[in-house]
Amino acid sequence: MRKTILVTGGAGFIGSHLCERLASNPHNEVYSLDNYFTGTKSNHVANVTYIEGDTKNINEIIDFIPDAVYHLGEYSRVEQSFDDIEKVWEYNKSGTFAVLEFVRRSGCKIIYAGSSTKFGDGGMGKNASPYAWTKASNTELVINYANWFSIPYAITYFYNVYGTREIQSGTYATLIALFKEKMRNKEPLTVVSPGTQKRNFTHVDDIIDGLVLVGEKGYGDEYGIGSDDAFSIMEVASMFGGEIQMLPERRGNRMSAKVFSDKTKALGWHPKTALKDYIEECRRKNWN
Predict the structure, then answer these.
(1) Going from the N-terminus, what domains does the chain have, and what CATH number goes with each?
(2) What is the DSSP letter of 44?
């Protein structure tokens, strides 16, 4: 049976991998809606129809009824969200409200990409930054919409995703890609103080395995998709082996976040790639 699937943020790091996986199934017709804020056309993959536009305009842009919407197209940086608060509100509140209205009218399932910051520091992390608060409150909105209007839904939570197509430089660079770039350029690895903050780094292929599985079989909240192994930022820098340069502390930078992955594992998901193995592979490839 053929399925029509819409991915918001489909030209981004995670979204492009999701589109690629979904499009590899000949029974899927895959569409991406992206405004290219952090996404890029170099992330386009075969057999996907790309539509440029903002999620807040989804009801005017999308003229078909999908079987499912994967909503990944939101603002997704912690420290930068203090300076980008207008974009955070536009993408994470106005945009997500419009997506939920689209889903309500279409009668399709929504798979929402929540944020693990919601669980940071014993639950206190959900209010630590504009990004964290909008994402945490959006999970409540998704649940309420589902209950109010009988919408099938599943909420997933990613934990520090790394892998090919990460943003490697600039304001929105991710840690593992940034460290790779610095090692390639023989520059010091910059670690935000205190450096003891722990993260559960999860390979993008493992994230996509979980997303597709939850899309097919999951219903409800708390589908965490994260590696069980947590490392401090200093430990990660030590794995890379470069010179370390400490940076001042930053607002919104949580110290830890518990991984809630039992529901995802109950569907048959398990992470397959270890961070240390990935770093060693990058070392062998001269950090490319």
Answers:
(1) 3-284 (3.40.50.720)
(2) -
What distance lies between CA 107 and its chain's CA centroid?
A: 24
- Which pTM does this prediction carry? 0.96
Residues shown for the chain: 288
Q: CA 123, CA 116: separation in Å to the nearest integer?
A: 10
Q: What's the CA gap between 132 and 78, in Å, rounded? A: 7
Please write the tens of the pLDDT for every residue from 11-68: 999 999 999 999 999 999 999 999 999 999 999 999 999 999 999 999 999 999 999 9
Q: How many Å apart are CA 259 and CA 256, to the nearest integer?
A: 10
The rounded radius of gyration (Å) of the Cα atoms in the chain is 18
The residues near 210 (Cβ < 8 Å, ≥ 6 apart) are 156, 223, 225, 264, 269
CB 128, CB 117: distance < 8 Å:
yes
- Distances in whole angstroms, Cα of residue 84 to Cα of each of 73, 234, 241, 251, 282: 16, 28, 33, 14, 32
Contact 91, 135 (CB under 8 A): no
Q: How far apart are CA 252 and CA 18, in angstroms?
A: 28
Amino acid identity of residue 3, one-letter, is: K
